[in-house]
């Protein structure tokens, strides 16, 4: 069983993924962490040095490697579902959960997040809101293809654990 957590940056994919892994006994993998460990460079620095296109190509390769994983929850990058055939790959290789927040909720989180975001780092405080709203509108059609959507910033871990356990029981009949 494989669960892919998708959603816009700062939607809580990593935090929720860690919580769900602990609650279900599944392993947790964060694609961004895998990238940074493998290439020994932050995503922000990689974007600066090599650009987004190079990053997206490597991200696709790392995503494809998850096909061999089992009993795992995988947190993806915010753009992962929106490039190449990544969403189709995830849908056919696992169960996708979209963590859906409004642009305003995301903006509030992004303003308080200390971790640098490569797509936001060169934007001024007045530009971030428009960027987030516009990009979310572009990306949401991909996100909405997910098998399951969680609404709002206060995701109930227990509700998702129930969903994961249901999927688990369908994937591995007794």
Structure description:
It contains 8 helices and 5 strands. The chain has 174 residues and is of the alpha/beta class. It starts with a strand and ends with a helix. A 5-stranded parallel sheet has the order 2-3-1-4-5, sandwiched between helices. It is 55% helix and 13% strand. The longest helix has 19 residues. 32% of the residues are buried.
Topology, please?
Elements: E1 2-6, H1 13-24, E2 27-30, H2 31-39, H3 43-50, H4 52-65, E3 72-75, H5 86-93, E4 95-100, H6 103-112, H7 125-143, E5 148-151, H8 157-171
Parallel strand pairs: 1-3, 1-4, 2-3, 4-5
What's the short version?
The protein has helices spanning 13-24, 31-39, 43-50, 52-65, 86-93, 103-112, 125-143, 157-171; strands at 2-6, 27-30, 72-75, 95-100, 148-151. The protein has 174 residues and is an alpha/beta fold. A five-stranded parallel sheet has the order 2-3-1-4-5, sandwiched between helices.
């Amino acid at each position: 069983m494989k669960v892919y957590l998708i959603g816009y940056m700062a939607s809580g994919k990593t935090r929720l993924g860690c919580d769900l892994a602990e609650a279900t006994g599944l392993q947790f993998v964060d694609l961004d962490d895998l990238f940074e460990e493998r290439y020994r460079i932050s995503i922000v620095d990689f974007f600066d040095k090599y650009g987004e296109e190079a990053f997206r190509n490597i991200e696709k390769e790392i995503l494809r490697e998850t096909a061999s994983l089992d009993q795992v929850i995988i947190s993806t990058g915010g753009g992962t579902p929106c490039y190449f055939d990544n969403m189709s790959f995830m849908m056919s290789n696992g169960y996708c959960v979209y963590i859906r927040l409004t642009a305003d909720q995301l903006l509030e989180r992004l303003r308080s997040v200390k971790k640098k975001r490569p797509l936001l780092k060169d934007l001024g405080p007045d530009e971030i809101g428009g960027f987030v709203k516009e990009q979310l509108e572009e990306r949401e059609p991909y996100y909405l293809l997910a098998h399951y959507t969680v609404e709002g910033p206060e995701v109930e871990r227990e509700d998702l654990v129930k969903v994961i356990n249901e999927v688990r029981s369908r994937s591995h009949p007794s």
